[in-house]
Amino acid sequence: MTMTRALIGAALTASLFITPAAAQQAAPLEVPAKSVPVPSDVSPQMKKIIGMPLRTNWDIHPKDGAAWKPVAEAGAETLKKLVPGMMERLHVKVERTTIDGVRAFIVTPERMRPENRDRVLVHVHGGCYVLNPGEAGLPEAIFMSGFGGYKVISVDYRMPPEAVYPAAHDDAMTVWKAVTKTTDPKKTAIFGTSAGGALTLAMVMRAKQEGLPLPAAIAPGTPMSDTTKVGDSFVTNAMLDNVLVSPDGFCDDGAKVYAAGHDLKDPMLSPVYGDFSNFPPTILTTGTRDLLLSNTVRVHRRLREAGVEAYLQGGEGQSHAQYIRDDTAPETKAVFEEIAGFFAKHLAR
Amino acid sequence: MTMTRALIGAALTASLFITPAAAQQAAPLEVPAKSVPVPSDVSPQMKKIIGMPLRTNWDIHPKDGAAWKPVAEAGAETLKKLVPGMMERLHVKVERTTIDGVRAFIVTPERMRPENRDRVLVHVHGGCYVLNPGEAGLPEAIFMSGFGGYKVISVDYRMPPEAVYPAAHDDAMTVWKAVTKTTDPKKTAIFGTSAGGALTLAMVMRAKQEGLPLPAAIAPGTPMSDTTKVGDSFVTNAMLDNVLVSPDGFCDDGAKVYAAGHDLKDPMLSPVYGDFSNFPPTILTTGTRDLLLSNTVRVHRRLREAGVEAYLQGGEGQSHAQYIRDDTAPETKAVFEEIAGFFAKHLAR
What we know:
- Two copies of one chain form a homodimer.
- Chain A is an alpha/beta fold.
- Chain A has one domain (43-346): Alpha/Beta hydrolase fold, catalytic domain (Rossmann fold, 3-Layer(aba) Sandwich).
- In chain A, 38% of the residues lie in helices and 16% in strands.
- The first copy, chain A, contains eleven helices and ten strands.
- In chain A, strands 3-4-6-5-7-8-9-10 form an eight-stranded mixed beta sheet, sandwiched between helices.
- In chain A, α6 (167-182) crosses α7 (195-209).
- Chain A starts with a helix and ends with a helix.
- Residues 1-11 and 14-24 of chain A have low confidence and may be disordered.
- At the A-B interface, α1, β1, β2, α2 and α3 of A face α1, β1, β2, α2 and α3 of B.
- β1 of chain A pairs antiparallel with β2 (34-36) of chain B.
């Protein structure tokens, strides 16, 4: 009996600490099916979001921009209806505008805090580069403006079928150039979630390449930082993340339609492969069930390797971008207050 | 066709953004079985660690300290053999000592950096409160000393069957008191992984309760912060984390044997439920496959809610505590250099 236990102990330890010599063949791990309850240590609002079934029709594959357009429009129609309530609860106003030919919205808190009076945040929305046109891209901008007390310029960039890569990037850069002409870049930040998180990273990389000013800080939320399907949580959180569901679902397909044949490994579309040197301080947000958990963590590490001040936050049980759903969830407020505080620390007044 | 797409779009969006009124019953999510390959974007050394099969005999359940002892001894025998190589590669020396009756090791870099000469780190090893006695608890202390250039005092605390709760906590506090008598607390930190991460948190809570000095910073690695089985990744990463494997496995059982009937929800054994006010700056480490990913993220959030400077880092594809396995893995070096830099920033010279 004692001998058996000793052998078990040795086996336990052998699998705990291994030397290179003891390395084994790396066969795939076969993980059995499991029944996953809603986590208990989250707010009632977040329980509702996390407890939703897998997104309906996550495996649609519209083949081009024309096929995506009605999908995007129908989605936007539903989303737009939520915007007035968000504006009211968070006490912000929204104004539609055009900046050097690019469609945009200006989101302003009803009462601007004195320290934020000269600060401007640029927002690039998410939606796999094909979804959330117009007001549908506004929720995150409204949350940031409302919880953080910042003026936000949200770029309503071109998407398929109107235009493909690099149109969204170009539009974002046009707005960025315009903003930095009228606002001290030290008083600016860029933020966005998912495709907007990738755009945030790509904008800094392009600004570096083009010799443009950089923002004082950025907040890429669960960035779509790798469209080449690399990232462990693409597998480990597949069919668990109820938003993106699978790397073979609608979202990566949408990005491919936008890329329109452009190399997906180009850092403009997969910024994890880009150059992070001289990046401004960066705050990243993800969730423990996020299909892009790995691709958030990987960006965090690349930033740290480049010596950049980079801060990571993660939401218990949250799938992809679930912190930009319900402004009444305390988890949502916490995420945006964290980002707002990070910006307050790094932006000049 | 257009109509169908429009409906799909509406459905997509409805599951993206929900209002409380649209909330659904939160049935468990049924996640199918999956085959999980070793992640590609990690080092060869880390691939070997991540690619190991599930720990042998993860579901053993020794019923008491006497039953655990041979398991712990056999494991320690295997681990001890790795220690000399670690010491040699990382250029540290180890000295066995006793501090006010408590067994401990003093780990010192061969060449002490001038700025670290007066700094002391206290280390509490992991192992579910039943494993890693003696030299088997040293790897993390050696990594910290070697990569960070710090003097480390590693507490070889009592475990079952020698003693049960609060013996390990008491031993750690005895060493803490002794250290703060001879070293300015502003020049100290406490760190540890797993049960050692929980002990690190519990030590700060006890120091606050007892009016003792606090360290200048702490580094709880993937802390066993909740022994009541709460934490979403206990389910989502079960049978995927190849180290802990399951919350119903050996580790939580070991903690229960140490608790010996003491309330597991006591913050001393489940520090996530404790009071985080006035905590020193804290750096937390986890991995994307970590069974304690949620319980690391939850501690991070509690710290931030208490206004504490708290920093989170996560390893791509890593299961529980896999950053303290192989000192030749670049991921290991990165984790310890990150912690060392955090300490360098917060500890007085």
